[in-house]
Fold each of these.
Amino acid sequence: MTKHIQPDRLAKLTSIREKGALPYPARTPGDPVPTAKLLASLEEQTGETFFVAGRLGQIRDFGKLRFSHLTDRSGSIQIGFERDRLPEFWPDRKLVEANDIVGVKGELGTTKKGEPTLWATEVTLLTKALRPAPEKWHGLTDVETRYRMRYVDLFANEDVRRQFITRSRIIREIRAFFDELGYIEVETPVLHSIPGGATARPFITKHNALDMDLYLRIAPELYLKRLLVGGLERVYEIGRVFRNEGISTRHNPEFTMLESYEAFADYKTVMDRVEGIFSRVCANVIGSHEIRFRGNTYDLTPPFPKKRYCELFAEHNDGVDFFDESRVRERAKQLGVHNPELTYEKIANDVFEATVEPHLDGPVFVIDYPKAICPFAKASDDDPRIAERFELFVAGMELGNAFSELNDPIDQEQRLEAQVADKDDETPSEVDYDYVTALEYGMPPAGGLGIGIDRLTMLMTGTDSIRDVLLFPLLRKLQQGEEIATDGAPDTDDAASNGTDEAQ
RNA sequence: GGGGGCGUAGCUCAGUGGUAGAGCAGCGGCCUUUUAAGCCGUAGGUCGAUGGUUCGAAUCCAUCCGCCCUCACCA
């Protein structure tokens, strides 16, 4: 690693030490003021002395005067280094350079052209950077390097920093929304001995002492509903789930899921909750209910339109009824999505996905799904073939999934057993009988919700790729000893095989 | 897995068979109001890797590695 460091920076490091200064001091000499505070009331504060700390940008050198910007978490401000104000620092000024982290004490003012500037009277090196910053004008643009070295991306690209601050604010608003409704936030196990609550291939890991296989959770659902049995009544969890599938602009193998469960509510209540979340995030984070995503504008003002699954199915399939098995199979063959391994309802759902989903620009709640494809949803009291379930679509992307939770233990046991009997290799291989036992003790009627936080953030921030809302998206491992291009090591190369597809 | 694109200096990129280039960053100078500062000078390379074709390969061919886009798969 260190062999690729810029030799001139190492030389400066040595120089600093030889002069008895510390290139990595343990303490910051003062409590830094956010630079944004200096700019916020510049006129009233002109002439006052402040201490700021952050990373130095490009240095513009005029011999006896130099300028640079100092960036901290709140923004950045120009620093003016004048020879006559810095008698002690001046001879060693070149040991402090772009990308170093410094503390600066100085007097607030402006330049002749009115640029707010902190005129330095004391400069303290806080951290010597041994690698240079990316080029000043184009910055760091290589996508692979940006993902692999997000730490560089973050300080080099302000909009990237802002993006992740926005993500954090979205999550904070969601928490506040549920907290105000009396929900409690809980944490359930990530390591599951039986993966369940969704249809997906799990990651397998091993517990050594117990000598048993464990699975990284594909959903927290079944544990959260156990809490309803326990009487917690309103719970939510925002946490990582893991699905052992491919990678794309909409899929990362680990992603963040919000799940909430509310006793004595049903899927209609949950629709209100979803609208409440969207409304709140739009108002408090985005500042608008109109968002731009992939070239289109979407109005997220509630209420969102509701469309029945079976009606949409007929509408986009020449009036074919979802439950008309022979005609649906025919249609599936015609579309080339007829997989005889699957159950009839799954084939029909594939037809739905092929014909209806592309048209779901939204926002739209697709409601009342066929019960057969909803193993955890309660059937409608009016039509036993229909489950009280909805999914929220915006921009053709599924953002949320919710239902009136099935709490009939006998029905649930039968459905889980049917799932295991299914040939589909994505379905669970084992029934979680403890979950059934929990239901036998009585779970209150409840409405449950799942929302993909990453996709929600994509939508809200107009981001095309899920990798741009994940700080560290999954990438292939580099070979040992291999470094990323940015420090002169041999580029690329590696072990491992090819990745593909999905998740979430 | 299929198709397409890309990989050259720390960064951003030119270079399509004949001595590896530019801008920025770096280094040495000049400069007290710049903000992509300017000017003069200087240094910097396993052209992703391996093999092949050729008198000669960054360039043509093959294989491999990595990233992006897209389709497929999949919430």
Note: Residues 158-180 of chain A form the longest helix (23 residues).
Amino acid sequence: MHVLAPHLLAPPFSALRAANSGLGYYRDHQSRGRIIDGGEPGVMDEVLSRISEGFRLAGELMAELPATNDPAYLAARCHAIAHAYGAAAHVLEGPAGGVDDAATGPPPFGGGEAGAGGYVHQQRPPAPQADLLRMSFPGPEDARSPLFLGAAGPPPPPQHHHHLGRGPHPHQWFRAAPSDAYGAGAGATSSGGPVRRLASSSSSRSSPPSPVLPWQGRRRRESGEKKVMVTMAAQPTGNTELPPDDGYTWRKYGQKDILGSKYPRSYYRCTHKNYYGCEAKKKVQRRDDDRFTYEVTYCGSHSCLTSVTPLLTLPMPAGAATTSFTSSPNAATSAAAVLGPDLVVEPLHLGILNSWMSPTNLGVGLGEASTCSNAPAGAAAAAARDTDYPVLDLADVMFNSGSRGGSSMDGIFSSHDRRDS
DNA sequence: ATGATTTGACCACT
DNA sequence: AGTGGTCAAATCAT
């Protein structure tokens, strides 16, 4: 049995931990600008390069793990990874506070400590760092861009040209289940579908005089509606990139070219809107300056996953906050609340977790994020506020239970519930 | 048959 | 008037 330092774990774990270390990037969709202010121009490039390298190596290691049993070899690989991250830390901390050996230094993203159950996140990093996020999931065949970085805005939408391979996600690390019963891991986004036609082939549809009926409820935008923007890396899948999978299933309902943006913006609504009237929506846009990064803006909350109590009753490690996720009628709100108001990014964390694992399991609505961070969390949150949030333990538990039954949307949306068209 | 995507048009908002 | 968000027919995939 090889024991790796928490921060040396391969991608999914390290990414997860990073995310749960408060690096989750989440903010109002209006904000823009750099996330990382590295001071000198070249500094962040180097940091990125280092982190990328570390992530890449970790990805490779993970890929090799199943077939490798040589402790010495694994240790060497771990050191290489540690070195890469250490170098990044060194650059970040400057000459004075450099960390020469990441293996003995603090976790790359700080704020972690080994507890009874392992690595438990306790505090989130200083505000500035909170912006430092951007996930990427280097896979064996494509280890590009590792992660977080703060790009500022949201990630761009799926480019249909590349998109959508029809089979299972090539890139399902630690994902026990393919997604959900509808086979849409990344939601409709990856469910496959027609490849975008060239403009010239403008379908045979002879544009009938738009039969748009008289005012049928094109709802006026709710200006007060909270939105959450998240920057996520594309899912590397060999030579294509899929939009980030946040664990929910989405159905695309529109795409639009946005002024000033190189890539079009795609609009998605929850696939279960018709089942449960779920109003969750999201806009996905690929960044102009980084095609591997998408900016996802979530609007509204998922009301379709409020009955995922089985998931939320995952065993909690001893010592972890015991506040139940199950008592609330609204799992999403409850979960976020439990994590506490101090963790502004928790919904994102969970969303990320969600994306790492069998989606749909985690009934945490990202759309609830803003609401949760503002709204009183209630007694549960209050109780959890001063407690070590079991985020990571939960994550581990979830990873470990990724193959458990119930990961399928079937368990949540039984066929008889479906009233969709 | 069913469900998802594409895409032009419509409409709200600024 | 310009832009962004949504609708829905046509089309495509399973």
Note: The CA atoms of residues 19 and 349 of chain A lie 6 Å apart.
